[in-house]
Amino acid sequence: MEGVVEALNRARTLSFGDIRTREGHHPDRVHRDDMFVDPFRGNDLPAVKLSSRRLKNQRVVAFDPKDRQTRAFDLLRNGLLAPVAPDATRIISVASPTHGCGTSVVAANLAFAIARKRQWRVLLATLDGMSPAFERLGLCVPEVHSSDASGIEVGKVEVDDVLVHVGSFAHIAIREGCTAARHALVSAWLDDVRHDCGPTIVVLDLPPLLTNDDSQAIAARSDIALLVLGVGSSTVADLEACRGSLTATPHQIVLNKARRHGL
Predict the structure, then answer these.
(1) String of b and e for 126-136 (b: at least 16 CB within 10 Å)?
(2) Of 50, 127, 140, 147, whose CA is between 20 and 30 Å from 171?
(3) Domain assignment of residue 263, yes or no
(4) In the predicted model, is pLDDT for residue 55 greater than 80?
């Protein structure tokens, strides 16, 4: 446990120059723009039109206010953003104990529900480099704006006039090297978005908390975390373990895959 705590503390104190030096780059040659990639700098590019039918077949519905399932995500959105000023930026992490709980579907629906309000720009990003969930949902990044330093790829998608920016940290998530360095890179990027890109809502689709070392550290940099539990796949022990890892982060529980007439 002491080793984990020490690594997390290093992640919080490592500078970007420290990380690049460890990876063979001279810090004097690194500029701030190399690290920070504005996710909205491609606003002049056309958005890729998505099929509403395909999304609904994958249970992504919140772009359609008339769909009866959208109400649940609108209520979730309202509860999360009620205290947030229209000109503010907020980071929302969505995670689960293990794979199979529907984290990506919940994150995508939340992003579209927020985007329908049109008060904020919405960035839906995944750090789960080992999961093809975004591709299965049809939300792969269509236009890429990447940086060797940050590893973030961002594009735009649109369905029924609802626009969402979609991003992937997959290159960071699966890269070899120091875990603390990955944490520091993502944390620095999130801090820059928080301070320089408002009003923005960032919805992060994180890898499972119980199987990935990155998720807890990134969730700690969020304003709030959603813990998605899957009926039939999550246990009480999973819940307690995850809540213990989120003690420093405000969080809410989402029960997913519940049936209409009970569990």
Answers:
(1) bbbbebebbee
(2) 50
(3) no
(4) yes
Work out the average pLDDT over 47-62.
91
**Domain for residue 261, yes or no?**
no
Neighbours of 38 (CB within 10 A): 14
* Cβ-proximal residues to 119 (8 Å cutoff; 6+ apart), any chain: 86, 199
Q: Is residue 231 part of a domain?
A: yes
pTM (two decimals): 0.79
Per cent of the chain over pLDDT 90 is: 24
Q: Decide if pLDDT at 20 tops 50.
A: no
The number of distinct structural domains making up the chain is: 1
Q: What does the alpha-carbon distance between residue 152 and residue 158 come to, in Å, rounded to a whole number?
A: 20
pLDDT for 12 beyond 50: no
What percentage of the chain exceeds 70 in pLDDT? Answer: 69
Torsion of CA 59, 62, 67, 68, to 10 degrees: 80
Task: Kindly state the average pLDDT of the residues 148-168.
Answer: 78
The answer to whether residue 233 is domain-embedded is yes
Domain that holds residue 245: 2-256
